[in-house]
# Entry
Amino acid sequence: MGTRSVRVREPSMNDVARHAGVSSQTVSRVANGLDNVGESTKERVLASMRELGYRPNSAARALRSGRFRDIGVAMFTLSSYGNMRMLDAITQAASELGYSLTLDLMREPTQRAVSGAVTRLLDQGVDGIVMMIEAELTDSAMAELPAGLPVVVNTSTARTDYPVVDGDQAAAGRLATEHLLDLGHRTVWHVPGPVSSYSAMRRRDAWAATLRAAGREVPEVLQGDWTAESGYRVGLSIAERDDITAIFASNDQMALGLMRALHEAGKDVPGDVSIVGCDDTTESASYWPPLTTVHQDFEEQGRQAVHAVVAEIENGPVTPARILAPVWLVERSSTGRPRA
Amino acid sequence: MGTRSVRVREPSMNDVARHAGVSSQTVSRVANGLDNVGESTKERVLASMRELGYRPNSAARALRSGRFRDIGVAMFTLSSYGNMRMLDAITQAASELGYSLTLDLMREPTQRAVSGAVTRLLDQGVDGIVMMIEAELTDSAMAELPAGLPVVVNTSTARTDYPVVDGDQAAAGRLATEHLLDLGHRTVWHVPGPVSSYSAMRRRDAWAATLRAAGREVPEVLQGDWTAESGYRVGLSIAERDDITAIFASNDQMALGLMRALHEAGKDVPGDVSIVGCDDTTESASYWPPLTTVHQDFEEQGRQAVHAVVAEIENGPVTPARILAPVWLVERSSTGRPRA
DNA sequence: CGCCGTACGGACATCGTTGTCATGGAGTCG
DNA sequence: CGACTCCATGACAACGATGTCCGTACGGCG
# Structure
């Protein structure tokens, strides 16, 4: 059990140096693992460091070197499954590369909020930033980002002046739609995420394109907003219709809401209606019925984003690449052949 | 659209001073809002700061002042609903108090992992730490935390040498159990979270105590591990029995799994079995049927934790308090009177 | 008119670390 | 054996901001 006491001055290099009978320079060399230090001296210094509980002062180090070994993450919400998983992966990747992570949440989708986050992160001294801009900002086509700072944007825009990491949303829309067509459904209805979302837009476009490529009718979309509640509302409005046999929901939560509405109306999934979700959240396997969905590799996206920023930090600007993480269909029990 | 360029040296106080024709101390005074600066001088300095894009160097400031205005958060996983919401609230509260936030995830529930996280955060220079230790560590009764550092622990232990913030888990177990008894169920079965979890333990104890206080039989627990999958397994094993009419699951995910198993077995919820969850996750309202559950105020917990650390940072050690956030029952459709 | 208090601005040292250069002793080669 | 290199180590300055101390100019007052 640690006991608590008032804060005291931490030992500095000079303290260690004095204790070991060397100059502070030598301590610095040992601390940084340089090789031009005598073996016995090195041992002595290490012993002193242990004994005094020496811990390098990151402020001084950063002041001198200009680098903090710290990357900033700016995002809008933790409450979406994708963001949460990605942050998890980002934290892990950063830690593996020896970077710590500063988190900043933006409370509204505006240019102002983005600038504010960037300013705070910059003031804090981050070496690079991973921005997760998943939706169009309400007051500007795209955020103004400062020059000369390594930034990776996670978004689905076609923007090319920064490295971009994203899941392959086009494939997601295509896989879901093809799966339902392959099962024999005449066409597939779609519940997209909010119109401002880049991912939602891409999935929707791919859904429509796939239908057209198969020569099928492209129905009106049944607008959702990512929430299960919106899926429920959509579900209520279509529960009476008999012509809808297959639905692709742009995320698992909306699929959950859809199924609740269908259950309430006494419809069977997949007997009356087949449903495909998107994201493959942990719980989707336990929905009733277990949900067929498109798996997104958020871990991979997070990892890629961190590697891209770190590469920029350490090697200078790179020609911005666009990295797409693969997706794949996970078939469970919410889809089946239409009734003959 | 920002253009990207190589990193250049940021303007310093001296640059601003030269540009404004004053000394760097005057710039410092202006930057810190001290009053002993002439009005016209002040204007001139502010103009120069804007023009040069001056941004105070946090490393230098921290080196001089010994404070970073940064708090660290160490936790085990983002994947639990509670942790995610709490981190969200922590980020917001920290930002409101002018603190930035450094996140570190521990990958296993061991003393080693905890020390590693603390070391990394300390190396990074945080002024205080919020530790979220929600389960017993496998290799030690409790983590050894360093002396002289403001720490707040979020956990359910009785530990008293640090401020502790937690939800009122005893009330959660009691409310859920009483609700089911009030509906007329003879007794209530329980699916606890993993035995290592402090919250799970408290909810379980409260459940048992409530039953005993009402003079009811306390059934064997149906062990779960927080996952929906574990709830499903438990559900399968009890779907055949007819004597179980009321279940309190220690979180919503397990309740979800339970309901899936019951559906598969053709049982009706709440007709045959009433179910109460815990946490009130966003999606629980869209489960089938919508889940009656105990709401936890994770936002409040996060806020309290931050306020406690900041208070310690700014005013020195306080006598450690134990803060309990309130919980309340949210009644939906998964509970009802037992069949006569 | 001379004294002092006050408002203002500058010089300097300092925080802990690291880059640069200097020093001195040991080893090498012609 | 002298000139040389090589290597461990130390002295010193610098990173950028800020606290302390001091000097100057100005206003008020006796």
Q: What stands out?
A: Residues 189 and 247 of chain B are 5 Å apart (CA to CA).
